[in-house]
Write a structure and sequence with these properties.
Blueprint lengths: L26 E6 L3 H5 L1 H10 L6 E6 L4 H6 L6 E6 L4 E6 L2 E6 L4 H9 L5 E4 L20 H8 L7 H14 L6 E4 L6 H16 L1 H10 L5 E4 L7 H11 L7 E4 L3 E4 L16 E2 L3 H25 L5 H4 L3 H17 L8 H13 L7 H5 L2 H18 L5 H19 L10 H8 L5 H9 L2 H4 L7 H16 L12
Parallel strand pairs: 1-2, 1-6, 2-5, 3-9, 6-7, 10-11
Antiparallel strand pairs: 3-4, 8-10
Helix pairs in contact: 4-6, 6-7, 7-8, 10-12, 10-15, 10-16, 12-16, 15-16, 16-17, 16-20, 18-20
The chain binds D-mannonic acid (CS2).
GO molecular function, one term: oxidoreductase activity, acting on the CH-OH group of donors, NAD or NADP as acceptor
Protein name: Mannitol dehydrogenase
GO biological process, one term: mannitol metabolic process
Amino acid sequence: MQLCKAHLNQLPANVLRPTYDRSQVTNGIVHLGVGAFHRAHQAVMTEAVLASGDLRWGTVGAGLMTTATRDALTPQDGLYTLVERSADAEQLQVVGAITELLGGADDLPKVLAHMAAAETRIVSLTVTEKGYYLDVASGQLLLNAPMVAADLANPRQPKTILGLIVEALRLRRAAGLAPFTVLSCDNLPNNGKTARAAVLAFAEKIDSELANWINGQVRFPCTMVDRITPATTDADRAYVNAQLGMQDAWPIVTEGFVQWVIEDDFSLGRPDWTLGGAVFSNEIEDWEAMKLRCLNGAHSTLAYLGQLTGRDTVADAMQLPLITTLLDDLWAEVLQVLHAPAGVDPADYVEQLKKRFCNPALKHRTLQIAMDGSQKLPQRLLATLRERLARGLPSPALAKALAGWMHFVLKAAHTPGAVLNDPLSAEILSKAKISPQPNDILGELLSIQKIFGTDLAQHDGFRAELLAGFQELAADPDVASAPQLAL
Ligand code: CS2
């Protein structure tokens, strides 16, 4: 028996499920990037709104690159199970907020049609850092990225989020419809402003009049999103199927904690997501900086060091003194220059993070977090580093964390058959292979301006800290670094 609308009433009594009439739901939201994170985060918040009786916010969920989620959830009428797991408690909930699923290139015309439809009020995004096609260091649109170039050459059949948003807005304007709000839910500083910059730069290349209209009319609120959501494993599937007494092709396992802080700037209304626990605030920049630097900065550090020390999950990595000591030092460096949101004690925030990272019920793979380092390091680690350098403060922990990334890429470069999951992998791997001398390797990697800009390589104090961190890690008995270093 498969999870689907017809079988909802056969679920065990302890499994939460939609109590509203799904047949009456209209689609106010199109979500691009309908992966695990969206399903553990925004979709559950929207579920709470639907459950309150406001049925205008059903979500059309689209995967741009893959049909996998569509193929798994369509036979289930969009239903899926969310397992919230803390160290000592668990709750299963079948979520109904996603009413229709689309995926892959063939569905893109349908995605566009939904975005252009009058009932759509919000287009939300979880497309990861690289989905915005911006150079992370300079913020410039990557005009030569093949996908962007293809969309610019053929703007009526777009394949990127930028092309889709601009074409859908063009269609709406031509039809006399007001624009939707673009709601970025990715881990980027000022994610709304970032989305706006990318969309405007793209639109400008196609039609400057349309770009002007977008500039004046379209809202791009910023958000801070947070919920640790590992990729689903076969063991998770088997567990959920046993609990449900029916098959769910793609359940999601997440932590109990959830946080969503949103700038309240929507042109066509928005769900009352406070019903799901969201907060509307105009201090997003501070929330986002705290989360990116404390949580994600520590996550990336854990991920690289975990990979170097054979710790496959975050909870395992949190058992190693090498890692926990470095994290404590890192958080001290971050907090010293952090501007926290009003009323928030960042030291408490960090204490809570430690508990979340130690949650033994989540199998969050360090390899999953380690991907796309080039896209993550700037906002997670380098932003704090630059603030400290500007104030003349030393940053040995941040430097050691970056050295961890360097050892990680070096290991990939020297391990036959290994791949580096990163949009800049070719460049990174060729630089990492350049020499067995640590100083040369660090210099080469720091010269990748798309990650490090031009300032850091020239900072002697930072270079010395980076080299020291790199040597310390190479000498650490817990670390399996690349074999052929000339130390
Ligand atoms: C993680 C994030 O994969 C990663 O890079 O750091 O996905 C992290 O789990 C979320 O931002 C938590 O909200």
